[in-house]
Amino acid sequence: MDLWLDERGRLRQESLRLTLHPLRQRTPGQQNAQVTSTTVLRLYDYGTKARVTAPPAGDTADVTDRMTRSGTDAG
Prior knowledge:
With 75 residues, this protein is mainly beta. The chain has one helix at 64-69, and strands at residues 2-5, 11-20, 35-42. It has one helix and three strands. The longest helix is centred in the C-terminal third of the chain and has 6 residues, at 64-69.
């Protein structure tokens, strides 16, 4: 993780690099496979008023149970 701060000490950018190794039971024959992901978050316009509304319920989903099961054979 790399963080960039401005002259006032505010976070301006965050870069996070992850290397993941897929679960063996999910990737037969690919035990040495890896996936690398880099996410960059840039922050700007501090102090700007924002109008934010939640999306309609039909456009959202609760994936908590899927994430919990992702490490099991239940898939």
